[in-house]
Design brief:
By secondary structure, the protein is of the alpha+beta class. The protein has helices at residues 2-12, 95-105, 130-145, 152-167, 174-181, 221-239, 253-259, 265-289, 293-309, 316-326, 354-369; strands at 22-31, 43-44, 46-59, 64-69, 78-81, 114-120, 186-191, 196-201, 207-213, 331-337, 344-350, 374-378, 385-386. The chain folds into two domains: 2-200 and 382-386, 2-Layer Sandwich (Ribosomal Protein S5, domain 2), CATH 3.30.230.10; 207-378, Alpha-Beta Plaits (2-Layer Sandwich), CATH 3.30.70.890. It contains eleven helices and 13 strands. β7 (186-191) and β8 (196-201) form a beta hairpin. The longest helix has 25 residues, at 265-289.
């Protein structure tokens, strides 16, 4: 892979040959359970994937920053200078690395230019965190290049800040955390209130994680996401008149009954999702530790139904894909994953049934929706890392 990356880099930037280049990899993520509760202080269970974003970088002696993505060749090489790092709505992808570079160069006095080559193996906009992946790839790279001393957690928090403030998407911390802290063959249990975490065994004996992409166009997902957050914030304010909680996920099912009269019907449903999803995630930890994959699958199903009926973030595409999966005998568990409104489902499927799953679920989906879903059989991998660190630095 390094060789290939190096070759591609020099095809795009054939000048200045002779300077050192370095390469980094940052994964995508899939969330197994604990959806829409990171920003409510709940527990989530994501894992990092072996698909993700590669970035190759070479420092320059001037102030030019040049960026190229193999996934957006029509954008060509984007060129800015170190003193001119602004959000540009005409950029399809470059705002993510530019936002991170801007944030990180605030603390550096002598900023050099760079040539950057990106290539991603995550489908864009599918809810597998291609944006968190490119943010962390850039943040980790900058930390190494300039020998800054950010901790992994600080890089995660900085990337989330860029997404919130520079990009303008009010996401929680789950995606950036999973990309930063992933571990091969493990799920992460993250407490989003205290940012404490643990690694858990995956429920994968004799089974695979299959991600199914609805291929639905993204549309208004970001504004609907921000709406859900606002509803949760309003409900929290009302609940705080009775219970001294700081985040919605602190509420128990018992307390939920006592606040119903304070809330609108919509707020009540949203809060019920938050409370029950947090409880399901904690239950999922217990069943995983007992190796009870069937029980894990049942919790995934309950999670999807709650996201469909109470949080209302699924839609016909995700529901069709998940229902087709539930009807397949090889499925251990299936649910939507990520923000919803389109994007992907996550499925745990018995090894010997994967082929039949892909063809049956795929054809049921295409028949009902009118276009095809895409499927990825994925492996769970490590968090963001440098590819060149244990090797002799790639040179020409
Ligand atoms: C998106 C956000 C996350 C999280 C999920 C829903 O992926 O970026 O912070 O809120 O949606 O669980």
């Amino acid at each position: 892979m390094l060789k290939q990356l190096e070759e591609k880099f020099f095809q795009i930037y054939p000048d200045q040959v002779g300077k050192e280049i370095r390469a980094f990899f940052s994964p995508g993520r899939v969330n197994l359970i604990g959806e829409h509760i990171d920003y409510n202080g709940g527990h989530v269970m994501p894992c990092a994937l072996e698909i993700g974003t590669y970035v190759v970088v070479r420092m320059r002696n001037d102030e030019k920053i040049r960026l190229y993505s193999e996934n957006f060749p029509e954008e060509g090489i984007i060129e800015v200078t170190t003193g001119q790092l602004e959000y540009d709505e005409n950029n399809a992808w470059a705002n993510y690395p530019l936002g991170v570079i801007k944030e990180m160069t605030k603390s550096i006095s002598n900023v050099n230019g760079m040539d950057l080559y990106f290539v991603g193996t995550i489908p864009n906009g599918a809810g597998l965190s291609s944006s968190a992946s490119i943010e962390l790839a850039t943040a980790f790279m900058m930390n190494r290049l300039y020998e800054l001393s950010y901790t992994r957690l600080e890089l995660v928090q900085l990337s989330q800040k860029v997404e919130n403030e520079f990009i303008g998407v009010n996401c929680g911390i789950m995606d950036q955390f999973a990309v930063g802290f992933g571990r091969k063959e493990k799920a992460i249990l993250l407490n989003c209130d205290h940012l404490t975490y643990d690694y858990l065994p995956l429920p994968l004996k004799g089974a695979k994680i299959v991600i199914a992409n609805t291929n639905k166009k993204r549309g208004l997902a970001d504004s609907a996401y921000n709406d859900r957050r606002t509803t949760c914030e309003n409900a929290l304010l009302k609940i705080q008149s009775i219970f001294s909680i700081e985040q919605l996920a602190e509420l128990s099912s018992k307390q939920l009954e006592q606040v119903e009269h304070l809330l609108t019907e919509e707020e009540y449903k949203r809060v019920r999702h938050v409370v029950t999803e947090n409880e399901r995630t904690l239950k999922a930890v217990t069943v995983l530790q007992e190796g009870d994959v069937e029980a894990f699958g049942a919790l995934m199903k309950a999670s999807h139904l709650s996201l469909k009926e109470d949080y209302e973030v699924t839609g016909v595409e995700l529901d069709t894909l998940v229902e087709a999966a539930w009807n397949h005998p090889g499925t251990i568990g299936a649910r939507m994953t990520g923000a919803g409104f389109g994007g992907c489902t996550v499925n745990i499927v018995k090894d010997e049934e994967v082929d039949s799953f892909l063809s049956r679920v795929g054809s049921e989906y295409a028949k009902k929706i009118g276009y095809e879903a895409s499927f990825y059989v994925v492996d769970v991998g490590d968090g963001v890392k440098e590819l060149t660190e244990n090797l002799e630095v790639v040179n020409r």
